[in-house]
Amino acid sequence: MAASAVVNGILALNSLVPALPQSATNGNSNLGTLQAPTLPLFVATPNLPDGLPWGTATVANTNPYTTTPGGGQTHSYQFNIARGNIQPDGVNRSVLLVNGEFPAPTIEVNWGDTISVEVCNQITGPEEGTALHWHGILQTLTPWYDGVPSVQQCPIAPGKCFTYTFLADLYGTTWYHSHYSAQYNAGLLGALIIHGPKNVPYDIDVGPVLLTDWYHEDYFSLVEQTMTVGAPPVKSDNNLINGKMNFDCAFVTNGQHCTPNAGLSKFQFQSGKAHRLRLINAGSEGLQRFTIDGHTMTVMANDFVPVKPYTTDVITLGIGQRTDVIVQATGPPNSSFWMRSDIDINCSFNSITNDPPNGSSHALAAIYYEDANTNEVPTTTATPYGDLACANDPLSETTPFFPFPATSNPAVTQEIEITFGRNATNFSVFSMNGESFRANYDYSILALANQGNLSYPLDPEWNVFDFGNNASIRLVVYNLFPASHPMHLHGHNFNVLAEGTGIWDGTITHQQNTQRRDVQIIRPGGSVKAQAGYIVLQYNADNPGVWPFHCHIAWHVSAGLYINTVESVSLLEKRVIPQSVQQTCTDWGVYAHNDVVDEIDSGLKDRDLGGLMPESAKWTRRS
Ligand SMILES: *[C@@H]1O[C@H](CO)[C@@H](O)[C@H](O)[C@H]1NC(C)=O
Ligand SMILES: *[C@@H]1O[C@H](CO)[C@@H](O)[C@H](O)[C@H]1NC(C)=O
Ligand SMILES: *[C@@H]1O[C@H](CO)[C@@H](O)[C@H](O)[C@H]1NC(C)=O
Ligand SMILES: *[C@@H]1O[C@H](CO)[C@@H](O)[C@H](O)[C@H]1NC(C)=O
Ligand SMILES: *[C@@H]1O[C@H](CO)[C@@H](O)[C@H](O)[C@H]1NC(C)=O
Ligand SMILES: *[C@@H]1O[C@H](CO)[C@@H](O)[C@H](O)[C@H]1NC(C)=O
Ligand SMILES: *[C@@H]1O[C@H](CO)[C@@H](O)[C@H](O)[C@H]1NC(C)=O
Ligand SMILES: *[C@@H]1O[C@H](CO)[C@@H](O)[C@H](O)[C@H]1NC(C)=O
Ligand SMILES: [Cu+2]
């Protein structure tokens, strides 16, 4: 088959009957099929006002950072993580699945509910540690359930289970993923939906639309490639919507079994109705540009922050970012349209870049109105969006519904420079203020901080920024690297005071009501500060804990683009860490003593200390 035939063929196929069954492409998941239900899936709590835990709270009248509705339910989940072989785009590869599903199961709760997830590590052949992070959840009062190994827990050892229990403290759209090395690249990611007050009316909640760049190699090889001086950059092989896409089998490079026209995701629209789509960039590197042929989109929230609605043709999402949009179904009842998401190859790397329409950087899914034949191939044309910067939409476009002004005199201002280079033994690494992060899985920095210990000998590579008891923190970040980075802070929605290129001149956009979110893209920069990309972020120290601040590109964080911020340390010292969290370190210590752990990236290093620390030095429970 000619190289171009299959992928070009997506647009020239006679029908969209998938060549593979859903079980072959996505295991037990029904996402991406017309059988995937709209949301909500559950009935609201009956004995509460309006059946809703948040009663009369609205987006505009309630400060979500100080208020969470009481009386919520607890939703319990059991997650078994194991290896599997699936063909999401027709190419057979080994992946990591939760309960046999790719994407992993959608978690769906109400604001104020408690989420309890028992995670069992059943990864074998070979074994690996794991840990799940609940992106954007504040974890106020439960900083030990944030899920970053070596920071708030030790990895969940093979054969062990660990239960995360935390409050759904904000509402909107997010996701969860492994935070162990670049493991989520192998498929360990899923949507997390928290229903709350609505700032824009709509009829149908279509649910998550996960946009993920996709790779045919295993993540460990890709991390090795990332860290090898002189090696070409890691490039994605395809781009998926809800875990599905076709691939041109002529481009398979390593002999994997490949089936053409494996099957695209399909969505159902009702003519005349308003649809909510929850867009999530859950990929490893690619910056996504999302469009729907023949439709505009109304933005209602960015990350967990509801915003005054604005209409656009194209949504830009860096890794980790979410945008909730309303799409008015203006087409006739028998119509069908292409949904598209493009990895912007000016900002990201894809292995097949002779586009359009060949490029595997272009994800497609079909939207069928109620009377359309759901196997027909849409014939609509793409919405053009011109030359866009490797950046988020201008800050001036975004106005959060609930204003949360940032103080003009933060207690501490920390400047941070992002650079790229090689370390003393010739591996490629990213650094923040000259230091590249390296984890040590035998420790939890949170547990040490809880004991008042922020003076450990390994301090430099743990990249700890101890902000003591400062009440507000401003981060002025400069990027001296020629690609953008989606920068993510755990435990907070930060105010985004400014972003741009050059030296920040002190100007703040919408000072009384800046954009807030939990990931913000910093622009590419030149190699000197005067030509750097910058972002200026600020947040109040109202959440005692150890909170990572890092680039969300899997390859960059693996290469050390990561710091730990210690917040409100004297309050942190008063917290009592649950015994089960301590147990992860005991179990990991036993496992790492007996097994050789492959060590390569920032998240996998098990530093040689001349033997492991005695157990007592690792964990002392503070009472
Ligand atoms: C599609 O790819 C083939 C093979 O690389 C190439 O010959 C052709 O020009 C491409 N078509 C477009 C439209 O880019
Ligand atoms: C996928 O690869 C695995 C492991 O090599 C193999 O066991 C399985 O049969 C393959 N599946 C297909 C459809 O080729
Ligand atoms: C949809 O219905 C219109 C009006 O009846 C008709 O003109 C058109 O051909 C139909 N389109 C399809 C794809 O069936
Ligand atoms: C990529 O850059 C080229 C050259 O500047 C430009 O023509 C093109 O529109 C850009 N693509 C996007 C998606 O911005
Ligand atoms: C350089 O990075 C590699 C890969 O992370 C690591 O194995 C090595 O120990 C580092 N070298 C130094 C001197 O830190
Ligand atoms: C690192 O590479 C440089 C040249 O690229 C070489 O001069 C130097 O000896 C290497 N260092 C180590 C520790 O291998
Ligand atoms: C802090 O913790 C490290 C690592 O366990 C240990 O080596 C060091 O002695 C501790 N410092 C104090 C003051 O307890
Ligand atoms: C504020 O943070 C700085 C470090 O950035 C630290 O030196 C200082 O002691 C902190 N102040 C308080 C009151 O904790
Ligand atoms: Cu980055």
Automatic annotation (TrEMBL):
| InterPro entries the UniProt entry points to | Cu-oxidase-like_N, Cu-oxidase_2nd, Cu-oxidase_C, Cu-oxidase_fam, Cu_oxidase_Cu_BS, Cupredoxin
Q: SUPFAM superfamilies, alphabetically?
A: Cupredoxins
Q: Name one GO molecular function term.
A: copper ion binding
The keyword Metal-binding is assigned to this record: yes
Signal sequence region: 1-19
Q: Does the UniProt entry include the keyword Nucleus? A: no
Q: Where is the Plastocyanin-like domain?
A: 81-198, 208-347, 455-568
Q: Which UniProt keywords apply?
A: Copper, Glycoprotein, Metal-binding, Oxidoreductase, Repeat, Signal
Q: Which family does it belong to?
A: Belongs to the multicopper oxidase family.
What name has this protein been given in UniProt?
Laccase
